[in-house]
Amino acid sequence: MQPFVDFDNVSLRYGGEENGLLALSDINLKVKEGEFIAIVGPSGCGKSTFLKATTGLWPVTSGSITVNQEKVRGPVNCVGMAFQNPTLLPWRNTINNVLLPLEVVQPQRSMWGRKRQDYIQSAKDLLEMVNLTGSEEKFPWQLSGGMQQRVSICRSLIHEPKLLMLDEPFGALDMFTREDLWVALQDIWLKKRPTIILVTHDIREAVYLADRVIIMAARPGRIVAEEVIPFERPRPLSLTFDSEFGKIFSSIREKITEVSV
Amino acid sequence: MRNFSAILDKLVPLFVIIAFFIIWELATVLFQIPSFLLPAPSTIFGVMAKSFVPIMGHAGQTLWTTCIGFAFAIAFGLLGGVVLGSSPRLYRAFYPLLIGFNSIPKVAVVPVLVIWFGIGTIPAIISAFLISFFPIMVNVATGIATLEPELKDVLLALGAKRRDIMVKVGIPRSMPYFFASLKIAITLAFVGAIISETVAANSGIGYLMVSAASRFDVPLVFAGLLVTSIMGVGMYGVAAVIEQRTVGWAMRSTGAQVQ
Q: What is the domain extent for residue A239?
């Protein structure tokens, strides 16, 4: 089967072919459709550049990226994205923030008038999955940081993207909220099965959520190792205290330490 | 008790204004200041009552020239702000030229306007426009240019065109900046219109004050000043109310965040 996301010898240099900063070097990576992968590594290892390259927001210098059997040339349509910063629109309430992508992306955009009620219903269903029922009419300033992040994740999912890119979405949250959202994200993924690429600093998060953890090193950003996470789904939170989990965690931690020095 | 302090909060500005006039009145009496130097408020109010109709006529002239110039400033300021804000390159290219234009004292432009358009209403409208256009445009451009890059990425990755980003996010986001600039620009627009009227006009508050001053009718000059400031406060109030109604979200989002 063709991989859903395929990086073929990708290098990316910021600012000039010759002497620019080499942010990604010879990346080869295949992600299957419906797979959940996590990318971890020290800061400055080009994780965010990786996201920009995948979505076509920044052109690669050499090599090629294929997403959904099409070579990436410009911005890829139909990708959902969420970042560390929730970036909600303060003048819209929760439900209208979630609906934003449907006003932009095709084909939903042209059916906006007719299917509006259906869209609102699916936004409500998503909000229910992240325990935000009752907050539909609230504005971002009335929500806590964790709630805003939930809305942001719903927004990235509303148009049922085949590919979901998450750039440290839980980075700014406290541990309890973060763990709640891990569980919620796993539920959503099990139900809808998008392909997810999660960029994170948090090794526990990566091991708990992903099928496969990719370890990157910095300067230049490159893939140094990968670890397949064998645990069954759905994974309970208590798994993070399991000794097998601990072993995988330490092995990844060691690999990152090796490449950091 | 809370109700009482809320009412007090609303009334305090009024008390301050009344106290200001009382102190002014007392000072003129106490220090025996002649009314051709500094007329007492009671004298000024007397003049205003006596010449109510002519003053209102001049005030009306000033108000409508100001409003027309201001309306043009809003239209062109919004348009220019959207264009400049959407392209950093255009912004950089035009900024020095715009700064240059804006640094020219508008009073120096009025004689040129008189040569082009004659005396009266049109130079007043144009100088009101010229002086109030710049802050509106720069504010709108800033609001659009400071759009979070992540949000742009989210929309681009959905296949949004530049126009979508502008309509869905850029313009709504710049509205608080726009209204903040309106409050500055409306008072500047009065300055522009009155400057032009003092130099070249047969009506308007500026003309009224200059002609009164040449007759040493100082109380009438002060009546003109007072009327101008009342109109300024009124227009500022209108801008502030519209701001509250339309972009209240921008003001609430800073203070009342639940953590």
A: 1-78+199-261
